[in-house]
């Protein structure tokens, strides 16, 4: 299969930005790629690599931007990080919308969890055990020791190689092609973590679990379940088993470590139940009528919170079936009984959006912003509604209120472009669409948008200078890509 050039944009930015550092390529030579002391890559360079990695992930995989799903996975992830050996390290957690059972850790603290893994967990502690394991891979710098190099490499080349290896574990049909395109000379690669890496991640992950208030016994329990699944599916075993091999001795070892801690029953959070209900609806293999039956059959079972989660799932299914009145009735009842559970208000807002009742939707999203000021997705949703209701000037005002970190989010650039487009300001429309495509990992499309902006008759000197600078930056990446493929 021909390598997908979008996958290699990660290597482009890394090579371009790291070569522009004050030190020379010779000074960046790495004496020992297996060094675990942190000498392999500086924090600044690691941040550049991580951001580049995530852009490539966005171009290859379907990432959830649902505000409630993202809020939940970030919350559980940060709880675990706070109890890790390096609580000050930056992490970013995200959900990949895929039925495959998998999770992976990337450079810069980027950790992806497939929706299929969440749905196949039987408890929140089982989900936490996988996330804790991936956190340990990052804090112990296993990512940078996951392969051997038979010759000295410059840091930029090494960084590009790491990125391609990590993506290959998630999308083998694309990633292996990227490895072939990037590798040179006698460089040898090892995609999977070593047995020692896995044992260390298990050991540290169990400590993180216990410190965070989760059940340490959930790790061997989940591993055992995955092992059984692997035997059942044969060659179609979960991807997690291929990148994190589970053996009987490993299960026995984690069980022995977990049982050293006192037993305690850890209940699931309601956010976990609601997240599973929402992701179940997004599963590719589930039909809407089957979902209705699933939720209706469970709607009278369990605790009040468990029944509410099934009602929530049923209401979301009604939205998918365009039965908005039935959905609104369920969410209004849930929101009245549980006013502090944000998912019910978010669902009410979604019903209003789908019904094109923008006044009600704006009211709900304003309330959500007030209750959860740190959630940028609620701000993006509100701004999107302003644009749908033909209020681009007001949308621009609200975009200025977005904090700097979230101004780098693809949604931010996309909304800016839409607002300027609605106002007929086509230079800025194309300029910010270029930034959107770049953030999504599509540098070729970004170049096209820059050239469209440059051809606009209303272009002024200041805009021309900005566009020229960005065009040179994007083109430099494309040239590096061609060099890597030769």
Summarize the structure.
The protein has 486 residues and is an all-alpha fold. The protein is built from 23 helices and three strands.
What is the strand arrangement across the widest sheet? 1-3-2
* Helical residue percent band: 55-70%
- Please work out how many helical segments DSSP would assign: 23
* Beta fraction: under 5%
**Span from first to last CA?**
16 Å
Number of domains: 2
Low-confidence stretches: 1-38, 147-157, 172-191
Counting helices, strands and paired strands, the structural category is: mainly alpha
Which series of helices and strands comes N to C?
HHHEEEHHHHHHHHHHHHHHHHHHHH
Identify the overall geometry.
globular
Mean pLDDT: 82
Q: Could you give a short account of the major beta sheet?
A: 3 strands, mixed
Radius of gyration: 24 Å
Count of extended strands: 3
